[in-house]
Amino acid sequence: MSNTNKHILSILSCTVFALLFIASSTQKKVTTPVKVAAYDFSPPSQSAAKSSDIAFLVLNPSYVRQFQYSSVDMFYKFSTSMGPDFNELLIAKGYSVRGPFDNYDAIVYSDKKESDLILEIQIDLSVDDKNVEWKYKTGGYPIQAYYQCEGTMILSGKVNLTASEPLTKEKLWAKSIPLAQKSIVVAGEYNYDLPRNYTLVFSRDPGVINPLTTQLEDFYKSVMNMAWNQLDPRELTMLKKQVMEIRAKKEY
């Protein structure tokens, strides 16, 4: 091979290497696995079966309507894990339990008639991104434009517990479990065509999902531990008299 050809080949090789380097530097490689949430609760003690004179119906937990990310996996699992765990909690307290049911209409009349209270769990979460910056960047070959996010998200909210008479749905007891506001540092590992598409971010980006999931796990433990203390048979058994009075008035 002539010196001229070697020189041309050397220039081409360097050019290709440079282009590959530039292109690779603009697309951040994603190597971090997405964290799988561990939402679980074990009752701290166990009462005798049906030792509490209250029969419960349990509805699966649901988010308030304005929470737009309820179907995203980490938030979906946060709510769907609670239904079975609330059942386990109530049984450990000595209550009789039926459910969890997806909604009120899924409960047959006989179950409503034979139960004393229906427990509803409503999750009110807030994800504040005002301190998250979406940086506009360009680069690569061919020229690419994209956004990357990083900053601090604020996660807060509460979980509302309501106990009602099953046939009339008249509310007899309510408690609110606050979730302390937490600031969570996030650094997205994906590039995005448009900024603030959080439905996509919360579905795939470990740089955002993982720190949020860690905090949601702490929130979950807090909710279940506080619910354990709130759902006290000594308080709730007193509601049975009101249930009987309501049904007498309605002639059920």
Structure notes:
The chain is α/β, with parallel strands linked by helices and 252 residues long. The protein has a domain at 38-124 and 157-180 and 205-250: Double Stranded RNA Binding Domain. It has eight helices and six strands; from the N terminus they run H-E-E-H-H-E-H-E-E-E-H-H-H-H. It has helices at 3-26, 73-80, 82-92, 109-113, 198-204, 206-230, 233-236, 240-250, and strands spanning 55-59, 62-63, 96-101, 117-139, 144-164, 171-187. Strands 1, 2, 3, 4, 5 and 6 form a six-stranded mixed beta sheet that branches. Strand 4 and strand 5 form a beta hairpin. The protein is elongated. The chain starts with a helix and ends with a helix.
Sum this structure up briefly:
By secondary structure, the protein is α/β, with parallel strands linked by helices. The protein is built from eight helices and six strands, in the order αββααβαβββαααα.
Task: Please give a handful of descriptors for the protein shown.
elongated; single chain; 252 residues; six-stranded mixed β-sheet
Biggest sheet record? 6 strands, mixed
> Which percent range fits the helix content?
25-40%
CATH topology of the domain at 38-124 and 157-180 and 205-250: Double Stranded RNA Binding Domain
Work out the number of β strands.
Answer: 6
CATH homology group of the domain at 38-124 and 157-180 and 205-250: Putative neuraminyllactose-binding hemagglutinin homolog like domain
CATH architecture of the domain at 38-124 and 157-180 and 205-250: 2-Layer Sandwich
Return the string of H and E elements: HEEHHEHEEEHHHH
> Cα-atom Rg, whole angstroms?
27 Å
Termini separation: 101 Å
Q: Which secondary-structure class do the elements indicate?
A: alpha/beta
Are there runs of 5+ residues with pLDDT below 50, and where?
5-9, 11-27
The best one-word shape is: elongated
Mean pLDDT: 88
Q: Please write the CATH class name of the domain at 38-124 and 157-180 and 205-250.
A: Alpha Beta
If helices are DSSP runs of H or I spanning 4 or more residues, what is the number of helices? 8
Strand content: 25-35%
